[in-house]
Amino acid sequence: xxxxxxxxxxxxxxxxxxxxxxxxxxxxILELRLNVQAGNPEAVSEEERESYQPRRMVVSxxxxxxxxxxxxxxxxxxxxxxxxxxxxxxxxxxxxxSFPVENSAVVMVWIYVSTWxxxxxxxxxxxxxxxxxxxxx
Length: 137
Known about the structure:
The chain is mainly beta. Helices cover about 10% and strands about 40% of the residues. It has helices spanning about 5-10, 45-50; strands at about 15-25, 30-35, 50-60, 65, 85-90, 105-115, 120-125, 125-130. The strands form two sheets. The chain has a four-stranded antiparallel beta sheet, with no helix packed on it. It has a four-stranded antiparallel beta sheet with strand order 4-7-6-5, with helices on one face. It is globular, with a radius of gyration of 15 Å. The model has no long low-confidence stretch (mean pLDDT about 85).
C-alpha cells in the first residue's frame, strides 16, 4: 500500500468497529479485523446509513504492537464491538510518546479506540487491506 493509499485508508477508520486483533510475533504479522462504515449518512433508511463492510488489515514486518489498556476496564463488557474514532501515521497529535524504529521503511500507525479512551500503536514494513465475504449491518 502506498503512503497516499494508507493515509486514505486510515481516514476511513472513523466510526469503524474493531472486531479482533491478533499478533503473530514469530511471523512478524499483526491482523486487525474491522467493520468499516460504508453507509451513506444522507440516506433515508437507517439500514443504508448504518451499513458496514468487513475488512482485514494485515501488517507484515511487524516491529512492535502496543495496546493501551482501556481507561475503565468495565468498558470491555456489554457495549458491542469497540469503536474507532480516528487513526493516523506517526505519533498521535495528543502525545509525543513513540518507540524508536531501526528501519526507515517502517511505517508507524496509531488507532484511537474511543470506546476504551486509549490507543493501539504499531509499526511494520507493509500494510495490506483485504475484503471479507460478509457485510455487517
